[in-house]
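Researcher: We plan to redesign the surface later, but first we want a full-length starting point. Tokens attached.
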């Protein structure tokens, strides 16, 4: 019996993640994806719309590059289906041969031609070059193409005259050219737009609903859960790479000792303040006086030495008991290079004193621009206090997560490699914290294990490394700069004020003195 669907509303043809992918209009866009979520199917819809449009409307020829014939046939069939669905006049799929420079290499092609003169040309393997071509290049399952780097070089040449390059793939290891391309874009070394969709994200966007619709069966939440479990069980140990967009073979140290030694300098101070257990029971005024004296003695001379024309930022990793709080000021020079003039490490320092020390530093930094606080757990209170003090638009309250590390660690590594970030303290503990970043499921982050501080005075958990990463993140924040100059009146104002913003003699903040 066929169920009655007369009252059912038609769902969107494309699921949310498919819509988001084709909604990205950029010269270069790269999508890392799970297996079998229909991203190429959505790409085919977009390609038909572009190829069917007139030149005046932005129409272009589309070149699809697969690495085998089966996937190419599947793609061109999807394009033909979309052309019919959109009711576009188009020629039949034609088979042909791509004129390649390599001797004895015949690349089979499938072509759909539209009345506007643009075509969709699907190739069954990688051409040796794309010279003389113009349009959109789609590289499907890019991680599995032979010599992807050379193919990218040829494809990106099309961008000069207004073409686009769309790259779609699951992962095939951390050392693959596809993953390296993503890392370059995340690090800001290459311009491009990134897209990511795991299997679970696709399910959350309605993938299983669509499976049920195609099968003609009702959607049941418990059955969806079992279906997802079965899919993950099918992929077994490969599920993280095939379904969760986590490249395999990752597990080593992320930042090499050679690079860190090259970017370190003896003489950059690391100021350490540690209190013994029970210190917090002393009355707060006495404690604040104690830490203020420490600031005046240790921090004031260093802050006074900073040139007044520098821009400054900070990052702070927070801890109260077990680990360290680390504050990393970061100054940016005219050249754009950045360095920490000093680091501050706080162990067993009460909350209010940590706030006092942070504010003491930030209020004296030259041309302070932005800061980033670890806002996880107890750090949320200090992060919020800093945002209230210096502006929510200038203080980022960061919840450290896998996604944050994924987006920001490639940039930190790139800045260290090219010398944009330099003059780190040549301090064994600080270098050890930076070396603590490991590739965990393809993402550079701090593992759960802790290290012993030099001298055995306490445990460390990559604290200085996280603070440096936060400071670098703050230096990349988009903030609005503005200046203020009071205007002097030519004559005393009738309201008793000599300046528009400055009270006349005899007036105070709360009224007449």
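Model: Full-length starting sequence:
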């Amino acid at each position: 019996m066929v169920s009655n669907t007369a009252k059912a509303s038609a769902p969107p043809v494309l699921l949310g993640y498919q819509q988001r992918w084709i909604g990205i209009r950029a010269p270069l866009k790269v999508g890392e994806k799970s297996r079998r979520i229909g991203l190429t199917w959505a790409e085919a819809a977009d390609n038909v719309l572009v190829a069917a449009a007139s030149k005046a409307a932005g129409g272009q020829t589309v070149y699809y590059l697969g690495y085998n014939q089966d996937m190419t046939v599947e793609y061109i069939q999807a394009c033909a289906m979309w052309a019919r669905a959109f009711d576009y006049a188009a020629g039949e799929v034609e088979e042909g041969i791509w004129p390649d420079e390599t001797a004895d290499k015949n690349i089979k092609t499938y072509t759909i031609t539209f009345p506007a003169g643009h075509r969709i040309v699907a190739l069954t393997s990688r051409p040796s070059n794309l010279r003389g071509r113009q349009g959109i290049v789609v590289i499907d399952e890019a991680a599995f193409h032979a010599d992807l780097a050379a193919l990218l070089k040829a494809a990106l040449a099309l961008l000069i005259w207004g073409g686009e390059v769309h790259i779609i793939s699951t992962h095939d290891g951390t050392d693959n050219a596809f993953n390296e391309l993503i890392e370059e874009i995340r690090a800001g070394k290459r311009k491009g737009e990134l897209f990511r969709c795991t299997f679970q994200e696709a399910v959350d966007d309605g993938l299983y609903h669509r499976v049920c619709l195609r099968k003609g069966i009702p959607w049941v939440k418990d059955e969806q859960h079992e279906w997802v479990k079965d899919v993950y069980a099918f992929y077994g140990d490969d599920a993280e790479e095939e379904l969760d967009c986590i490249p395999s073979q990752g597990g080593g140290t992320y930042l090499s000792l050679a690079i860190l030694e090259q970017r370190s300098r003896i003489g950059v101070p690391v100021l350490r303040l540690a209190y013994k257990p029970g210190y917090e029971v002393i009355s707060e005024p006495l404690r604040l006086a104690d830490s203020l004296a420490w600031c005046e003695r240790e921090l004031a001379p260093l802050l006074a030495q900073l040139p007044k024309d520098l821009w400054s930022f900070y990052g702070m990793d927070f801890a109260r008991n077990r680990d360290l709080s680390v504050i990393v000021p970061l100054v940016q020079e005219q050249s754009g290079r950045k360095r920490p003039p000093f680091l501050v490490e706080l162990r067993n320092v009460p909350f209010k004193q940590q706030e006092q020390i942070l504010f003491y530093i930030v209020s004296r930094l030259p041309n302070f621009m932005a800061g980033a606080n670890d806002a996880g757990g107890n750090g949320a209170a200090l992060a919020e206090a800093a945002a209230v003090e210096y502006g929510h638009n200038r203080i980022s309250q960061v919840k450290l997560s896998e996604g944050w590390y994924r987006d920001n660690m490639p940039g930190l590594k790139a800045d260290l490699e090219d010398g944009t970030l330099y003059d780190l303290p040549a301090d064994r503990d600080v270098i050890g914290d930076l070396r603590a970043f490991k590739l965990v499921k393809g993402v550079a982050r701090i593992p759960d294990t802790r290290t012993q501080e030099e001298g055995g005075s306490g445990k460390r958990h990559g604290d200085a490394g996280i603070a440096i990463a936060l400071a670098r993140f703050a230096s990349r924040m988009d903030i609005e700069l503005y200046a203020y100059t009071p205007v002097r009146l030519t004559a005393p104002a009738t309201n008793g004020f000599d300046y528009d913003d400055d009270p006349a003699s005899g007036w105070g903040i709360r009224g007449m003195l």
